[in-house]
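User: Run a structure prediction on this.
Assistant: Running it now.
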Amino acid sequence: MYARLAFAVATTITPEILIIDEILGAGDAYFVGKSIQRMRQLTTQGATILFVSHDMSAVQMLCDRGVWIDKGRIKADGPILKISKAYLASVREDEEARARARSMQLSKRQILSHVGRNDIALYRFIGAAGQAPGSPFAVAGIKFGSGQHSGFDVSIGEEQAVSRLIIESGITNWSNATNMDGKNARAFGDFGGKFIHAPFQIDWSGLGKNDRWLELEYAPSVSDKIVLEFYDKESKSYKSLHEFFPENNGWKQARISLPNDDTDETATGCIEDLEHVELQVLAPEDRYGDGPIGITAFGFFDEENTRRHTLISGEPARAILAYNVEQPVTDPVAVVAIYRPDGACALQVTSNRDGKKLGVLREPGKISILFDPLYLGPGDYVVSIALFKELNIASNHEPDAYDLHDRCYALKILPPEGVGVSVGIVNQPAVWELAQ
């Protein structure tokens, strides 16, 4: 009521300049409609309106010119449609980074620190079995360099440094810094982190891309093999660099040569590269089946064949499922099911319901599922994928699975560009005619 009253008082007269800051978010649909009508009326009477809002639909209805302000600085200024498109594209990239946090096994705050910083590389220690080690793996120092260039240090304790251990309670599995046999160190172990790994990042700015190396001072786990991995941005997966075998001989040093960087930084993770994408580590309750065919990778792709964790409702999209075969399998049934967070199935496609027989699969390959367009409405979803031995679409009995991943993959659907009203769970197109 305060917002309504303030708006009514401010627009009783025709001002030269009227500044409106997110006022439309304070009312119902009737108030919003009347407010926009009044502001349009004022502009016809010679008033200039400065409308501050994140609601692109309302902005485009009211404004001719847009100024995009980011962190107190003008990022873009121009015609409203051009600016709104750029802003929405930026929001989409931000959402993409947040969704990517799950696959990189970092928090949203951590993943956003990597956006647009091509010189920062991500590494992690992880148990060979995908679990935290029974006895800790301690790290007292990490140096890095290129060729004969003297080494730089990765910070063990300073969390504000760029090259540092990535430490976040409840997310990663680094211990507190402590004195271990006279050395200031942290350990990788079971310390309650959601993702069972101990990551760190390195800023390679100013160093050559070839002949890079790491030097580690560490104390091995006495019970478990630990793997040092790096995150490959092209394949969007972790790859092994070095293995540390269990020992009980105190502190050790290792110098590890890194693979030369011959990749194109503009690579986007296209469909042809999907077979190189490793699956995230799944808990036993998340995955089941008895082979002999198994899913080796899965991802969604947009209209330009770029792998995405976010898609736009009403635009073409594709899901790609890669598989490996141990022995020939005849006509498996592929399924992609998308669920709302409350567990309700929002969309499910099955290969046999759509009349597709996959035939005899003898070699590794990929299955493509085209949504042209994707009618799923905006929202957050989780995705299940499966290869079944057979599936009777007339029965509600779940059949035996070769491989099933139960609601393991996050997906975010964004609204169509320029649409502010809710389109619902299904963005259904319609043909409108005057009835005869």
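The chain has three domains: 2-95, 119-257, 271-414.
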